[in-house]
Write a structure and sequence with these properties.
single chain, 97 residues, mainly alpha, 70% helix
Amino acid sequence: GSGVFAGRMAECERALAPFVDWSLAEALGSESLLARVDVVQPVLWAVMVSLAEVWRSFGVVPDAVVGHSQGEVAAACVAGGLSLEDGARVVALRSRA
């Protein structure tokens, strides 16, 4: 479980890197970074995508996924409607608006 989570978080960090000036690993341990909307939204997206990967590793494959805000972007990634890279771009750019 936790290895799957860490692996997916690392993939999310690589996907976010071209669009942000902070690292996911750094943000997770930084209260000041997490206080920023442009950081916390992509971080929450990465956590949601990574939790879904853990569930998948245990055989939990949903018939449908829904979400709101960054959860909608995570749902689109989990469902295969957006690649991880496209999801990272959407959530990072949207969080700056």
